[in-house]
Amino acid sequence: MAKKQSSRSNLGHYAFLVGILLAIIIGLFPTTETIRSAVTVILVVLGIVVGLLNITARETTEFLVAAIALMTASAANYMVIPNLGGVLQTILEYIVTFVAPAAIIVSLKTIKQLADA
What we know:
single chain; 4 helices; 81% helix
Protein backbone atom coordinates (compact mmCIF):
# COMPACT_ATOMS: atom_id res chain seq x y z
CA MET A 1 0.00 0.00 0.00
CA ALA A 2 2.82 2.42 0.83
CA LYS A 3 4.32 1.86 -2.61
CA LYS A 4 1.07 2.91 -4.34
CA GLN A 5 0.92 6.10 -2.26
CA SER A 6 4.57 6.80 -3.09
CA SER A 7 3.98 6.48 -6.83
CA ARG A 8 0.94 8.79 -6.58
CA SER A 9 3.08 11.29 -4.69
CA ASN A 10 5.78 11.03 -7.34
CA LEU A 11 3.22 11.59 -10.10
CA GLY A 12 2.02 14.78 -8.40
CA HIS A 13 5.62 15.91 -7.87
CA TYR A 14 6.53 15.32 -11.52
CA ALA A 15 3.32 16.97 -12.71
CA PHE A 16 4.26 20.06 -10.71
CA LEU A 17 7.79 20.18 -12.12
CA VAL A 18 6.64 19.60 -15.70
CA GLY A 19 3.92 22.25 -15.37
CA ILE A 20 6.25 24.93 -14.06
CA LEU A 21 9.02 24.11 -16.54
CA LEU A 22 6.57 23.99 -19.45
CA ALA A 23 5.08 27.35 -18.45
CA ILE A 24 8.52 28.95 -18.27
CA ILE A 25 9.97 27.39 -21.43
CA ILE A 26 6.92 28.01 -23.63
CA GLY A 27 6.58 31.51 -22.19
CA LEU A 28 10.10 32.39 -23.33
CA PHE A 29 9.34 31.94 -27.03
CA PRO A 30 6.71 33.32 -29.38
CA THR A 31 4.14 30.66 -30.29
CA THR A 32 1.22 30.16 -32.61
CA GLU A 33 -2.36 30.08 -31.38
CA THR A 34 -2.45 26.32 -31.92
CA ILE A 35 0.57 25.78 -29.68
CA ARG A 36 -0.84 28.16 -27.04
CA SER A 37 -4.11 26.21 -27.02
CA ALA A 38 -2.34 22.86 -26.70
CA VAL A 39 -0.09 24.14 -23.92
CA THR A 40 -3.10 25.57 -22.09
CA VAL A 41 -4.86 22.20 -22.15
CA ILE A 42 -1.71 20.43 -20.94
CA LEU A 43 -1.22 22.95 -18.12
CA VAL A 44 -4.84 22.65 -16.98
CA VAL A 45 -4.58 18.84 -16.88
CA LEU A 46 -1.28 19.01 -14.99
CA GLY A 47 -2.82 21.52 -12.56
CA ILE A 48 -5.70 19.15 -11.88
CA VAL A 49 -3.24 16.31 -11.24
CA VAL A 50 -1.27 18.49 -8.83
CA GLY A 51 -4.44 19.58 -7.02
CA LEU A 52 -5.60 15.98 -6.62
CA LEU A 53 -2.31 14.29 -5.76
CA ASN A 54 0.27 16.76 -4.55
CA ILE A 55 -1.30 19.10 -1.97
CA THR A 56 -1.89 17.57 1.44
CA ALA A 57 -4.40 18.83 4.00
CA ARG A 58 -1.52 20.31 5.99
CA GLU A 59 -0.35 22.34 2.97
CA THR A 60 -3.76 23.64 1.94
CA THR A 61 -3.64 27.09 3.55
CA GLU A 62 -0.12 27.86 2.36
CA PHE A 63 -0.89 26.65 -1.15
CA LEU A 64 -4.08 28.68 -1.45
CA VAL A 65 -2.42 31.84 -0.11
CA ALA A 66 0.47 31.38 -2.56
CA ALA A 67 -2.00 30.81 -5.42
CA ILE A 68 -3.88 34.00 -4.53
CA ALA A 69 -0.61 35.97 -4.35
CA LEU A 70 0.51 34.58 -7.70
CA MET A 71 -2.78 35.37 -9.39
CA THR A 72 -2.76 38.88 -7.95
CA ALA A 73 0.83 39.47 -9.07
CA SER A 74 0.03 38.26 -12.57
CA ALA A 75 -2.53 41.05 -12.92
CA ALA A 76 0.25 43.67 -12.84
CA ASN A 77 1.32 45.38 -16.05
CA TYR A 78 4.77 43.98 -16.78
CA MET A 79 4.77 45.48 -20.27
CA VAL A 80 6.39 48.61 -18.83
CA ILE A 81 9.63 46.65 -18.35
CA PRO A 82 11.58 47.08 -21.57
CA ASN A 83 12.42 43.91 -23.54
CA LEU A 84 11.49 41.58 -20.69
CA GLY A 85 7.97 42.66 -19.75
CA GLY A 86 6.12 40.77 -22.47
CA VAL A 87 8.00 37.55 -21.79
CA LEU A 88 7.46 37.87 -18.03
CA GLN A 89 3.75 38.53 -18.57
CA THR A 90 3.40 35.47 -20.80
CA ILE A 91 5.26 33.21 -18.36
CA LEU A 92 3.05 34.38 -15.48
CA GLU A 93 -0.08 33.81 -17.57
CA TYR A 94 1.00 30.22 -18.22
CA ILE A 95 1.88 29.66 -14.55
CA VAL A 96 -1.54 30.98 -13.49
CA THR A 97 -3.14 28.70 -16.09
CA PHE A 98 -1.34 25.82 -14.38
CA VAL A 99 -1.97 26.86 -10.75
CA ALA A 100 -5.63 27.92 -11.05
CA PRO A 101 -7.04 24.40 -11.61
CA ALA A 102 -4.94 23.08 -8.73
CA ALA A 103 -6.28 25.87 -6.50
CA ILE A 104 -9.86 25.05 -7.50
CA ILE A 105 -9.35 21.36 -6.70
CA VAL A 106 -7.69 22.13 -3.36
CA SER A 107 -10.44 24.62 -2.49
CA LEU A 108 -13.15 22.07 -3.26
CA LYS A 109 -11.36 19.39 -1.23
CA THR A 110 -11.11 21.83 1.69
CA ILE A 111 -14.78 22.75 1.48
CA LYS A 112 -15.71 19.07 1.45
CA GLN A 113 -13.53 18.42 4.51
CA LEU A 114 -15.15 21.35 6.33
CA ALA A 115 -18.62 20.10 5.42
CA ASP A 116 -17.79 16.60 6.69
CA ALA A 117 -16.47 17.88 10.01
